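Hey Z.,

So I finally got round to the G3I thing we talked about over coffee. Here's the setup:
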Amino acid sequence: MKNILLALSLFMTLISRGQDPFLKGQVHFPVGASLNPRLLENNPNYRARAISEFNSVTAENHMKMMLVHPEQNRFDFSKGDEIVNYAMANKKRLHGHTLVWHNQVPTWMKEFQGDSQAWEAMLKNHVQEVAKHYKGKVVGWDVVNESFLDEGSLRPSIWAEHIPDYIAKSFQLAHEADPDAILFYNDYGQDGKPKKMQAILDMVKDLKARNIPIHGLGLQMHINIDSKDEELQKVIEQSVATGLKIHFSELDIAVNPKNQADFVYDETAKKAQIAKFNLLFKTYQQIPSSQQYGITFWNVGDQDTWLRGYFKRPKEYPLLFDENYERKGAYDELLKSVKNVN
Ligand code: G3I
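And the result:
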């Protein structure tokens, strides 16, 4: 109760000073959430929370290959466009996710037949049609997503199998179609996986040496309360040292990583989660501002998380807002923590 009153009084003070009391007004870099058009349309609390707290948006699923390009000769931008309309109507920055991935690939692409030239033409058509459609609307793109395995080798995929140098080609194609877009390589789980991290750094070095346009690194940050602070800090440091823009692109912090059926989201778990949110935001605040592309949460409320849906882990609470889109303790603590640094 005391905490609620304190938070309320802080909000009232900020409003009376004409300051934006929500998360987006309290940090000096963009802060976003991945969103789902169905929830935006059907759930007023979800929509209101997304509008008030965040100034950036990523489509959680609806700009991916499977959804925008369901058949070889048919694109379907309808749901992605709902996210565009939301962004434009509410003056949010829009981040594109993702042009080339091994997952959520439509069946026709998986079954595509042809030599490497035909594959390249098919990839070109996909990347450029999508990038052109969203040109002038998205600020940046996750051009290539999750290409490396933990041990640092190139992940086997239809792209790796059929198109030599597909990463570089994808960046070139995206740049040709939308020369103003900030182009990212996006991946997860670099912390504690030095070979994976090194493969990403080597790729960046190689692309830069060949003048291939890469402008940013997305660190997804699907982490958990047992993730090690030193390992997280190390990969952030290594990423910053590339000079590229840095996006914590899919942040969530799992509290029940072993998916225990009898898990209780108790004070210990909450404290550990708060400490990780604070660590990530504080570390991000120390990045040179020219490299701060922003921090994006992977959806809004705990029940919207992919960990419960896609991953089927019902007892997960990885975000800042609860099932009713109320702020959790982690939200208040995060706000306090960023204010101490700003
Ligand atoms: O929309 C269909 C629905 O019509 C159908 O009835 C239902 C049955 O399974 O599936 C629904 O689609 C699901 C979709 O999410 C929308 O909810 C897919 O099955 C499901 O596979 C898909 O999961 C997404 C996952 O990527 C796919 O790999 C998650 O929502 C999404 O959060 C997740 O996001 C990825 C990032 O793109 C890349 N980084 C990792 C991150 C988490 O896995």
